[in-house]
Each structure stands twice: as structure tokens, then as C-alpha cells.
Amino acid sequence: MKFFIDTANLDEIKEANALGILDGVTTNPSLMAKEGITGEKNILNHYIDICNIVDGPVSAEVISTDFEGIVREGEHLSGLHENIVVKVPMILEGIKAIKYFSSKGIKTNCTLIFSAGQALIAAKAGATYISPFLGRLDDISVNGLDLIAQIRQIYDNYAYDTEILAASVRHPMHIIHCAEIGSDVMTGPLKAIKALANHPLTTSGLETFLADHAKGNS
Ligand code: E4P
Prior knowledge:
By secondary structure, the chain is α/β, with parallel strands linked by helices. The chain has helices at 10-18, 29-34, 40-53, 67-80, 92-103, 116-125, 134-139, 144-158, 172-181, 190-195, 200-216, and strands at residues 2-6, 24-26, 58-61, 84-89, 108-113, 129-132, 163-166, 185-188.
């Protein structure tokens, strides 16, 4: 399973990249605003900065909601850097735009997926990735992981190339369950990624090894 980090924070992206296990980055307008990145020029430069850190796909989201606007913005974004994947909202105008981008060889990430029907129509349009938001479904008492499993089955039934990019990941168990289900990618916060490495028996075992070594060498 590929690991993407879901942030626009350059320090976090550098830290995750330095681990050597990072495959890409996802951003969204809220994450950009959280970092105080505003104004078109600053936003575009920030995407380039991210692309220069990570050698992998970087999702950059369009703001337009009409076909012409999405195409105009998406073509501009994809021209910024070869790593850019155009993130398009799951609306009918977005589906038309994804079909257009796919015919031009422009990679897309269809975002704000909350149902299997949405995932199906995005795959038919030729989306490179679809982003089911599992944490936000969990937030409203709907099992987000069930949706990932349902989409996995549908895509496997028809051998769709579209990759499932499990998004809105909140904690390490989300990541583990996504891997069990066979999600192609997960995008999550640095905290959840780093937490995968933790186990109290590893911590105490290492403490004992180091203490025993120190005793033998004192
Ligand atoms: C997906 O690409 C989104 O950026 C993201 O995963 C949303 O997550 P949130 O529900 O934690 O905001």
C-alpha cells in the first residue's frame, strides 16, 4: 500500500519524506489555509515547493465547480510540475472534467467520495485516484472502512485501473485496516504514520537490551 501524507506543512512533509517510506502528498484548500498559504501565486508556489521535496504524486485541488473552470484550473495546475495530480470534487461537472483530463493524459484525484456509486462513476470517467473520506464517515456513525471494502470489490469485479486512495485517515488502525482491505493508497497525518512504529514491548525490550549491554561493558 502506498503512503501519502495529508498536509500542506513543509516541515511535516520533509520529516515523512526523510523516513524513506513516503510515496506522495495530498492537500486540500483547508490544509493550505491552515498553513496560512493564501493568494493564487503563493498557493501555486507552495505546490511547487511540495513537488520539489517529494518524488511522487502531489494532489492539488481545483476551486472551480463548472466544467470550463475545472479544466482551465486543472490544466494550469498540471503544467506546474510533473508530480501534480489534479484534485477534482465529486460533482457531475467534475466527472465531465475527469473524463476530459483522462483523454489528455492528465492525472486526477476525485475527492469527497462518500458512496460506492460515486466511486463507480469516477472510475468510469477514468479517474487516476478516488478519495473516499473514511474518517468523516466514521464521524457520522457510518463505517468508513465498509465503504473502502465495497469499492475494492467493485473495482476488482471490473479490473478498473482507478486507485483507491483512502482519505480522512485519523489513526494507525485506519491505516492497518485499509491495508487489510487492499486499499491501493492511504493518505493520513504524520502522527498516524509515525504511530505505526510504536509498540510498548519494543520500547521496553530496547531499554532492557541497552541496559544489559551497558552493564556488561561497565
Ligand atoms: C483528502 O485528500 C483530504 O485532504 C483529507 O484526507 C480530508 O481529511 P479530514 O477529514 O481529516 O479533513
